[in-house]
Amino acid sequence: MKNSREIMEILEAYDLTGSYRAAAELAGCDHHTVARYVKLRAAGQQPDRRRHRARAIDDYLPKIEELVVRSQGKIRADVVHKRIVAMGFSGGERTTRRTVAEAKAQFRAGRRRVYRPWVTEPGLWLQYDWGDGPTIKGRKTTLWCAWLAWSRFRVVIPVWDKTLPTITACLDATFRRIGGVPAYVLTDNEKTVTTDHVAGIAVRNPEIVEVARHYGTTMRTCLPADPETKGGSEATVRIAKADLVPTDTNLLDHYKSFGELETACRQFCEEVNSRVHRAIRRRPAERLAEEQQRLHPLPRRPFTAAFGTTRRVTWESCISVESVRYSVPHDLIDTRVWARFHGDEMIVTAVGEDGSAREVARHRRGRPGDPVLEDSHYPPRADKEIDRVPKAQTAEEAAFLALGPGAASWLVEAGAVGARRIKAKMAEAVALSKLYSAAKVDRALGTAAVTGRFSDKDLMSILDYQAAHGPAEPVRRGEDHSLQPGTSAWASFGLPNQPASDTSEYDESDLA
Fold it and tell me: Residue 89 to residues 52, 61, 63, 85, 96: CA-CA distances in angstroms?
């Protein structure tokens, strides 16, 4: 089989000479080859097209096509091969596989779905979908992924559930982040949006219709089992999960709190919206500024009916629902919030000054009389029992505390046990610092504080011992050592004619 270049050279040689043999000598081939290509050209056929040769499998082509059509192009080649072998085919499986592949290609060519490019308009479409988020403290999160079709502006918000109040809060946050409301919102057929399908017509959830009416938009849903009608939001979910969910490919650290995930989502949105988009060759943030002129204005207040009942936050930073107090962040004191139950959880939603709604607290459902509090909702407070630092009020106290940290420890411990004549002993310690060094007196005071020795002569005794033997680690009671005196003197108690020193037959376990 000659290639196209060789065939053109043969035909050019024939046009030049007008003879099969002369053209064959110029082209370096047989004159029969020249004659064949010249006749094909004269008949209007392509000279370089390979002629079909009869094959043993040609007799079984109708059966193969029938099997491919019946299976909608999904039948395996090995199954087809078994069928035609049973019918008498003696060829190899490789021939069958090649023939089945050709039949499947022809089947798909006649049923290929053809798309017309979607030409979007500014201010018209917003799409959203859900993605699986990371796990935080053993609990699964969900990512709300919204996509403004014309400007390609993306909004990703982490949430705990996909209930209707959460959808309402996410819609409100998305609208306020893009600066307006589009004409249509497209999403999937979940029960929060579509309750049923009758004769192919989607029946909307009345509550989501009220939400859409409040914001001046229309909810639309894609065709069932056809995610290609909202491919923009599908791509947003895929990109967000690749950059936000810790996997082996991105080596992200696990999130310690929900706040860290919220910060990561906001940083992700700033990054993808500020870089040049491949399709439009512009930054989505720049296109959003143009699209905002075609968006509907936002209502000043969000749709709060879905957030539950209103509650006033007390000065204890709590709200009361069904005689149970639940804590909320302390910066919401003396404001109004919305509370609702979802399963076994209490969810609290607040509306900011800019009108944006956000979830501020989520608690387990409590019982009357048992308040449900969270430490993070209150400002940090100093522990007065741990942070006990003496502060001098007089010159005598300042002179004593100037000895060092041992003096401060002694004063704290002496006050805790109610020692007598503390001021006189402090003056004695200051006087001893002139005889000994201040460092030695401070060290002795620290030892006295550790061992609990606050009697009148204890400080002088410790100073004399440390002067003679040097500083030593105080002996503390424990499993390895006891400060209680031994019991060997009681070994012979009540035993006649037994020397007091003989304790060979008794030990401490017997006496116990």
Answer: 20, 11, 12, 5, 10
